[in-house]
Amino acid sequence: MSQTIQRNIYGTLNDFMKTAPVFNSRTKQEIESFFAYCKEGMDTDSEKLLATLFIKALNKKINSEFIGENIYLGQFDISQIQLFNILIEKFPFVKFSQHITNSAIAEEMQGAEEVTLVDIGIGQGTQVMNIIGLSEKLPQLRKLHVVGIEPFAEALEKAEENILAFNGKVPFQIEFTALHDFAENVDFAAIKTTGEKTIVNASLALHHIQSDKQRLDTIARVKKMNPNAFLLIEPNVDHYEPEFHRRFQNCYSHFYHIFQVIDRIEHIGNADKNALKLFFGREIEDIIGKEEKDRFEKHEPATQWIKRLKASNFSIKNDLLKSPVEAGCGVEINCFQEGFLGFRFKEETVLAVICAN
């Protein structure tokens, strides 16, 4: 696609977003025409597909049916397991951010006989299972106490099952404590920790905490545990922004660059790439299509998280974060003087990894 057409797609969408949510009948016709243009060929054109996702989100915001809902075409469907495998094994932002944090956690565990690992938003325990795999090489480790915090009961039960299944397969004992709750409700100081070291991990979890006060309070409560390391992975973009048009601009740039990286992933087909893009379409719908009180994906720049960490007397400890030489797909991993490891594609720093204690 030429640069001219790329600018036209963004420029047209940007014009619509400037006046949202108030539209007259002529504007609605223009949006419908633009949507039809983008829908034709969107299976091979990232920016057209991205534009349709924004229009779908805009439709939800203004509670309109004038375009219709049939964007998630069957040809893009793949299994959740296949999608998950692509994210973990192929998508450089997820693959290498977790590789970096897992390695940092394993390094912090060195020399300790007993360790407590608190995982905020543990999901089904995949990241912790990878950490356990790395921990097999730690000769002194005798016990690992995993505290899984997760608001979704089924995922938490699966995490406990998956993690405890390692007992007898690794040269140390694993205990699991399940906390079925949101992170902002957890009394971290009351968590019973065992061993010489306590490590807290929060991978793509803290931005789900809704208010600034709750985020600051949660980090302050984590500090009361005096963890040896507190690791965060967070998207580096301002979707907390309340002004709709500025939030759209932030959102478009963020996901435009993500889609460009997806296009560069090798050894997967176009259908898998489009399915991965539609996975992020759910986030776009949340950021653009929902009312402020209902939004869930309230990402913030890394500097905001660092500011909160410092306000709670954490020190930045990024010497533990060791990045690979190359992430692939045009993604660069750089240390930023503000105190985070950033995953950058072209002019957009998409993701941040932060380590504090």
Question: What's this, in brief?
Answer:
With 357 residues, the chain is an alpha/beta fold.
Q: Unreliable segments (pLDDT under 50, ≥5 consecutive)?
A: 1-7, 70-75
Q: Which CATH architecture of the largest domain is right?
A: 3-Layer(aba) Sandwich
CATH top level label of the largest domain: Alpha Beta
Count of separate DSSP helical elements: 11
Q: How much β-strand is present in the residues?
A: 15-25%
Arrangement of strands in the largest sheet: 3-2-1-4-5-8-7-6
Given the helix and strand composition, which structural class is it?
Answer: alpha/beta
Number of domains: 2
Q: Considering the protein shown, what is the CATH homologous superfamily of the largest domain?
A: Vaccinia Virus protein VP39
How far is the first residue's CA from the last residue's CA? 47 Å
Spatial extent as radius of gyration: 21 Å
Spell out the helices and strands N to C: HHHHHEHEHEEHEHHHEEE
For the secondary structure, the number of strands is 8
Query: What do the pLDDT scores average to?
Result: 89
Largest sheet features = 8 strands, mixed
Shape: globular
CATH topology of the largest domain: Rossmann fold
The helix content is 40-55%
